[in-house]
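Aminoglycoside phosphotransferase domain-containing protein: structure, please.
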Amino acid sequence: MEHGAWLGVALPSRAGTELTRLLAELAAPGPFLALTNGDAEANNFLTAGGDGRLIDFEFAGYRHTLTSAVCLYVPGPAWLTVSDPVATGLEAGYRRALARGVPEADDDRLFGFGLASACLTWAATRLTRFPALDARAPGENSRLQMVLTLDATARAAEHHRALPHLAGWAHRVAQALRRRWPDADVDRTAYPAYTPRR
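Here you go.
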């Protein structure tokens, strides 16, 4: 998560403490340890006749199960924006299904912390692409996607009242990117949910 320093956004000490907790959560997920697809993006979920199937298990493995829920909250490689999973009821449905095998998913604190940890890790991993994105021409949608990823990550953490200092850092990095990339300083509500990236 040091990449924000490239933009003049240092990681505050309290965010560093949260980072230590985040890493511990993902390294030892306890009851949230599960076999996951490893790439649960929308393009790896096929539907036909009311039936749905996950495909592409190349990255499958045992990890924190909420890492597979990140795509519900944060834009993935193929999407510019995602819909609000809380407002649409998607989060509630996901939690009900998960709680059948992981009863701890019903605990707001445990679910929120695990989800925020997974989302922030995804955003930080995507941020490692900063040098490549910075070298691209203005108007390249992957820049906007990075800004929206940071914003969506922070919103997910804030909604669940988890990791507030890391969420604040994500917001500050997004603002720094908007200043650096004026073409990425747009109103996210102008894009319909699941707008594909060019």
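Notes: The longest helix spans residues 108-127.
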